[in-house]
Write a structure and sequence with these properties.
- The strands form four sheets. Strands 5-4-3-6-10 form a five-stranded mixed β-sheet, sandwiched between helices. The chain has a five-stranded mixed β-sheet with strand order 13-12-11-14-15, with helices on both faces.
- The radius of gyration is 23 Å and the shape is globular.
- It has twelve helices and 15 strands.
- The protein has 372 residues and is an alpha/beta fold.
- The protein starts with a helix and ends with a helix.
- Helix 8 crosses helix 9 (284-308).
- It has helices at residues 2-26, 31-38, 42-54, 119-135, 175-178, 190-199, 258-262, 272-280, 284-308, 316-321, 326-336, 355-371; strands at 58-63, 73-77, 83-89, 93-100, 105-112, 143-150, 153-155, 160-164, 169-173, 185-189, 207-213, 217-223, 226-228, 311-315, 346-348.
């Protein structure tokens, strides 16, 4: 009897969760739309949306267009349902984003602010975030929480930034950061955040590897609606796989790491957009750098695909800017591929601006969604 009761409660929660996600994903819908789309009975769909309206998560917005009979009530995500903030901390900048529960970006901003360990830095970041949210007209009561992205290993079990070579941080407790913000804080690695952002527009892919090619190289495995973390929360750390034994020195202290060959800094110390502009103009130096870069990158991408047998998404500064030049990587990977694949499993990222900040905010949304 108890087991049946628990099962019924779980089914109701799942149905309620599915309905809320459906409304967030599709915008303006009706109860018949929900019933048809989720294969629920109309009374069940109607009861669930009534509960969501009472909780202030969904609101009625007039009526849908007539299809011949009585017009159905139009339902949509409530404007007061809550919003999520995302914060991406890097060596020289912070990026901030505010999103609706639907995942729609309301505002994005990137600020030059070099990282410095200590209270003064986090106080300034908190002030910048408050000013950003104020400009959005968003009060504290509307913020569900903030997702904070760091470049480094996030130990979710011990709740700390285990190691960030880029920032010079080791064993930094999450609490030492979150105490400066008046919101619930959720932490994740920058590559994981980028993968999370990519997943929102990749529902057709149940599994993919996200390779972040910025001033450092990182990676993440997205599978069946979530991120694979690994035993030590290092799943996807492709930047430190060896592609050239005893090769170039990496910032980690080892030699031959992918990061030493395929970070954005291997192409330019300036703006990556400017590099691709020179490449498009046929500048010989740019062509030579790109030729070597793609040859090295092809080794890593082919290895990742051989092990995981899934799509590979190229993100970060390079993935965001490469555009039509992705064909060069596809061709080189196809030439290496044992199974005669054409390289179409490689694609550039969808979110080309502030992906880590967006992904951090989406993590907050996902945690909220799970509780609806």
């Amino acid at each position: 009897m108890d087991k049946k009761k628990i099962t019924n409660m779980e089914v109701k929660k799942k149905n309620r969760n599915d309905v809320f996600r459906y409304i967030c994903r599709n915008g303006m819908v009706s109860n018949p739309d929900i019933s048809y789309g989720l294969k629920l009975s109309l009374p069940t769909a109607t009861q669930i949306t009534k509960e969501l309206i009472e909780r202030g998560l969904v609101e009625e917005r007039g009526e849908m267009e007539s299809t011949g009979g009585r017009r159905a009530k139009a339902l949509a995500l409530s404007a007061d349902a809550g919003k999520a903030a995302g914060l991406d901390i890097t060596k020289n900048h912070i990026s901030m984003v505010l999103t609706e529960l639907s995942g729609r970006i309301l505002k994005y901003e990137r600020i030059f602010l070099p990282y410095a360990a200590g209270e003064a830095y986090y106080i300034e970041v908190s002030q910048k975030l408050e000013g950003f949210l104020a400009d959005c007209g968003c009060g504290r009561e509307n913020i569900l929480g903030i997702g904070i992205s760091f470049p480094g290993i996030m130990d979710l079990e011990r709740q700390l930034v285990a190691d960030s070579h880029v920032l010079g941080v080791k064993a930094l407790p999450f609490s030492e950061v979150s105490r400066f913000f008046p919101y619930p804080c959720h932490f994740l690695n920058d590559a994981n955040a980028g993968a999370f952002a990519e997943a929102i527009d990749s529902e057709h892919m149940d599994r993919f590897f996200y390779l972040s090619l910025s001033n450092t190289v990182g990676g993440a495995v997205y599978s069946n609606g979530g991120l694979e973390q690994g035993r030590n929360f290092r799943c996807g750390e492709a930047g430190h796989m060896t592609i050239v034994p005893n090769g170039k020195a990496c910032y980690c202290g080892k030699y031959g790491c992918l990061d030493a060959y395929c970070s954005a800094k291997c192409l330019t110390e300036g703006r990556v957009e400017d590099f691709f502009e020179r490449l498009g103009q046929g500048e010989q130096e740019a062509i030579g750098l790109w030729e070597q870069y793609t040859s090295d990158l092809a080794i890593a991408v082919n290895n990742i695909h051989m092990i995981l047998d899934c799509d590979v998404v190229l993100g970060g500064y390079v993935g965001s800017c490469m555009g039509e030049f992705i064909r060069d990587i596809r061709d080189k990977v196809a030439a290496r591929n044992t199974f005669a694949e054409d390289g179409s499993f490689i694609r550039a990222c969808v979110h080309r601006t502030g992906a880590a900040a967006l992904g951090a905010s989406l993590k907050v949304i996902e945690l909220f969604m799970e509780q609806v």
